[in-house]
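Example 4.3 (complexes with small molecules)
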Amino acid sequence: MNYLSTRGHADRKRFCEILLEGLAPDGGLYLPETYPQVDTATLAKWRTLPYAELAFEILSLYIDDIPAADLKAICAKTYTAEVFGTDEIVPLRELEDGVYLEALSNGPTLAFKDMAMQLLGNLFEYELARRGAELNILGATSGDTGSAAEYAMRGKKGVRVFMTSPDGRMSPFQQAQMFSLQDANIHNIAITGVFDDCQDIVKAVSNDLAFKRKYRIGTVNSINWARLLAQVVYYFAGYFQATASNDKPVSFTVPSGNFGNVCAGHVARMMGLPIQTLVVATNENDVLDEFFRTGVYRVRAAVDTHETSSPSMDISKASNFERFVFDLVGRDPAKLRQLFVDDLGLTGSFDLSADPAFKQAAERFGFRSGRSTHADRLAMIRDTEKRFATLIDPHTADGLKAAREQLTPGVPMVVLETALPIKFAATVVEALGEEPARPKKFEGIEALPKRVVQLPADAEAVKAYIAQHCD
Ligand SMILES: *Cc1c(COP(=O)(O)O)cnc(C)c1O
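Answer. The structure with pyridoxal-5'-phosphate bound is encoded below.
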């Protein structure tokens, strides 16, 4: 399998080459040259496989530069009941007739990002050992990504993590999760500033090519193809649990920010998994909902990006969206560049409303969308607790609200549960007046010793810290 760039670069790469890279050299995103097709006989074979074996089957269609036995061992080591809490790994539960929650948040940091990041940690360790190389991951987080990356990379040989976060701005639980890690290869850096300052620092350091090369700086952001690929697996696993046979369509609703999660659903659908509809759920930061309703993609300015009670979906632009649009415009890189380089670069938006391609988003690719507000989330958390005795987090509540607006009789609707309520306790308390239950392993973590340094919002200070802590 070869990978190409959405922006038309002539190079073709293999999986392990793009594993440790971010953007393609021309600024595009990597995609497989073709989507492997899965027929009904294959689906029948896969239906009864344990999760780790299903992951191996799907990953092997996209990865041909890791020996099969090694890839199988990596999958088996990653997706265990010990790490994810159950043998099913992503158990499905029915809320009411035809509406399901797929649990993706029982990994180490209680958000769905563990599903991909745990695999990435093991792939990185494998590939770095094979090359005899090291990698220093530099990241910026306002919560879920940073902790998922740290728990995936802790103790891994050849990898260090330098994770910046805005000082004092994460929830106490999130801070405790990250800062209580005592592993020598994990470095928490609290920046005096806001999340954008952290992102600017990461950008500034990555733009210093000499520094980047000397200190082998890498990232684990959501545009990484391996993360997306890992997420494809749970669409298959969810489908098998929601159906008794492989001729039944299923729809999925996905709480969305950077479009990484739902893009994996798109890939699963392109492979031939019988997905009827993919519902993109947004909060007040509705750049994606606006696109699917109107055909206009309009990136928001910082002042128009709202701080909401589903903060992991508070985005101004959706960094994975380019992958889907590439397929939408018939994989035409010139057209893609016109939209993402020329139009977005000049005006901050592009408009496909009059383009026949836009109709395809719904008709051919099955996309719908929905939007919710803080009041919707509170109402959804209350209703779900009251009627089904089930506690959901605010992001999953965004999903459930959008899902209810898109139900089709006879077609199961699977809502992806992207975090556990304990991670966003304040909003759950606001809705219900009570604290969500806390898994045993997280009891009292706020009181544990914290391992974090404070640095000013200055890229030079962060560079000096990295230089000091590399060997
Ligand atoms: C990251 C995240 C999302 C958004 O996922 P994308 O892949 O960026 O669309 C939604 N909910 C939670 C809890 C998250 O951590």
